[in-house]
Design a protein that fits this description.
5 helices, 0% strand, 76 residues, 84% helix, mainly alpha
């Protein structure tokens, strides 16, 4: 999350907020989820959810820094 904040500040990309929010959500989940809750819901399901969240983060970073419209870069 620190790296995303630094990149967002350097590039002045306001859309980076979505990626930061997704990373924050995943980080909180990994930090605070209890093993009892994870096992009750199923480990496979939990890991698939983490994988899905990583995919969403990837997509947000891709759209923000790689696949953006050139017009939006010129306006920023």
């Amino acid at each position: 999350q620190i790296a995303l904040d630094a990149i967002a500040a350097l590039t002045e990309r306001r859309k980076a907020i979505r990626a930061n929010r997704l990373v924050g959500r995943l980080r909180a989940s990994l930090s605070f989820d209890q093993i009892e809750d994870i096992m009750a819901g199923g480990l496979r399901r939990y890991l698939m959810d983490i994988q899905q969240q990583c995919g969403q983060i990837h997509t947000a970073i891709q759209q923000t820094y790689i696949a953006y419209q050139i017009d939006s870069a010129l306006i920023s």
